[in-house]
Amino acid sequence: MRKKIAALLAMLMLGGVLTGCGGGNKVATGGEDPNVVPEDTYEINWYMQGMPQEDVASVEAAVNDYLKDKINATLKMHRLESNQYSKQLNTMIAAGEYFDIAWTTPGVLTYTANARNGAWLALDDYIDTYIPKTIEQLGEIADNARVDGKLYAIPTYKEMADSRGWTYRKDIAEKYNINMDNIKTFDELLPVLKMIKENEPNMQYPIDWGSDRTPEALMKYEEIAGTAVIFYDTDKYDGKVVNLVETPEYLEACKWANKLYNEGLVKKDIMTATDFEQRLKDGKTFCYVDFLKPGKAKETSAKFDFELDQSTVSDIWQDNGAGTGSMLAVSRTSKNPERVLRFLELLNTDATLSNLINYGIEGKHYTKIDDNTITIPDDTSYTLQGYQWMQGNVFLNYLTEGESPDKVEALKAFNAEAKKPIDYGFKFDNTAVEAEIAACQTVKSEYRKQVIMGSMDPEPIMKEYAAKLKAAGIDKIIEEAQKQYDEFLANKNKQ
After folding, report:
1. Residues 6+ apart with CB under 8 A from 301
2. Strand ranges (E), 270-425
3. CATH at residue 411
């Protein structure tokens, strides 16, 4: 009996040591066995951005049946429209409310800031036990997503790069024999837009944009903080952090937006207009600047009455946002992070689960054409088509009717061909300039749309914008970022 008690105490002490390591995280070895189906059922609450689905309940029921004998978990999918998602999740995080999984991306539910403020669970202690296959298939992209050396969320396994160019109406281009592959600048695009406006009265705005697809979107830079940026596609600013608003390239892009507006080629109320995608679907525009990948235009126009096509303008770049552009984070408030991570391992490696969540139930929400291709009826009551890039591993997904059969190979080749900028891997620590960043963000929120959207002459506004940024501390931000960037480049050159 004494020997049994001693052995039990030794095990308890070992368990206590293991649980105490890892900077406050529960250590994986102190959690549940990943090879055993637990007896207790755990409900996973997953928050997603996107349109709510009518028949989500039947999909959840099918998912729950599938998970029962694998990890004994049930799934609750909370889908919130874009104007609600960030507000609600930020409120929940600030209040320390419980949830399990959230989609995170820069500018919506910021990954890096929430990692540093403790909203997300650090995953490193869990990787080998619960998500080894997921991290292995991500490769260096997982390291690209680290903040201060730690991984706080799982990147979506998808295209990890982008090129910039045009997405446009294929039927209109063919009607007028327009070769968009030969058009690389707005100077070359302008006469095409004028011709379409003259000959196609239904094309009320031959070029259209939201605040992320203006002429400025053809520029390639990484935003560090406020308007402090590092350029990728020009050697003019090599090794330098610069104020975007003070560059002639930015002024030129904003002038083009204003010129296109003054020519009557852009929606007159572009400053206040909403729902760019609906305007596109209505067929009243010819083209827009887009962030491209293979097959992007076909995906976008899958439910349109016309087909879109695409043409690239820029090189393919894999930048510092490659890992953080679309991620799933586990909340620090999760009641069972081990079970949640077991679910995420399945989501990223199990095609049946991935397609069930993305497309629903075969015969009810979609029909199979062949083993790897499906057709989705227009009146389906459930589909996350077009949102696959926001969760899991897109390479597990069915192709939809009309998509190229070599889509997966094309996406992987796209990733392989991507160029990496010299600041690849640089992560700015904003601790020393948090107040200045907040002040500059306030200025940016006041002036950015005024200069990029096109309805105002940007030149006089830009001068006022730059002056307000200086008063808010942009130069201090640039100085601090430059110091860290110089150190990063020096260390990189030693390797």
Report:
1. 307, 308
2. 287-292, 308-312, 327-330, 367-370, 373-375, 399-400
3. 3.40.190.10
- Spatial contact of 237 and 219, defined as CB atoms under 8 Å apart: no
Q: Give the model's confidence band at 477: pLDDT under 50 very low, under 70 low, under 90 confident, else very high.
A: very high
Chain centroid offset of residue 425 CA: 17
Residue 15 forms part of a structural domain: no
Q: Are 113 and 290 in contact (CB under 8 A)?
A: no
pLDDT tens for 288-308 read 999 999 988 988 887 788 999
How far apart are the C-alpha atoms of 449 and 444, rounded to whole Å?
A: 9
Q: How many domains does the chain have?
A: 1
Q: How far apart are CA 361 and CA 145, in angstroms?
A: 33
What are the pLDDT digits (tens) for 340-397?
999 999 999 999 999 999 999 999 999 999 999 999 998 999 999 888 989 899 999 9
Q: Does 99 map to a domain?
A: yes
Q: What length is written for the chain? A: 495
Q: How many CA atoms, within 13 angstroms, populate the side-chain half-sphere of residue 47?
A: 26
> What angle separates helix 248-262 from helix 186-199, to the nearest 10 degrees?
10
Query: Which residues are registered as beta bridge partners of 162?
Result: 317
* Residue 71 and residue 343 in contact, taking contact as beta carbons nearer than 8 Å: yes
Are the C-beta atoms of 325 and 104 separated by less than 8 Å? no
User: Residue 255 is which amino acid?
Assistant: K
Report if residue 7 sits inside a domain: no
- pLDDT-derived band at 30 (thresholds 50, 70, 90) equals low
Contact 216, 421 (CB under 8 A): no
Record the tokens describing residue 353, joined without a space: 């689960």
The pLDDT of 40-44, averaged and rounded, is 97
**Residues of the domain holding 139:** 20-160+320-422
* Sheet arrangement for strand 163-169: 287-292, 163-169, 308-312
Q: Is residue 271 included in any domain, yes or no?
A: no
**What strands, in cross-sheet order, belong to the sheet with 399-400?**
367-370, 373-375, 399-400
Residue type, 312: T
Q: Which ranges in 292-422 belong to alpha helices (H)?
A: 296-300, 337-349, 351-359, 407-417
Q: What is the DSSP letter of 391?
A: S
> 3-class SS at 151?
coil
Starting at the earlier edge strand, list the strands of the sheet with 327-330: 73-80, 42-49, 101-104, 327-330, 153-155
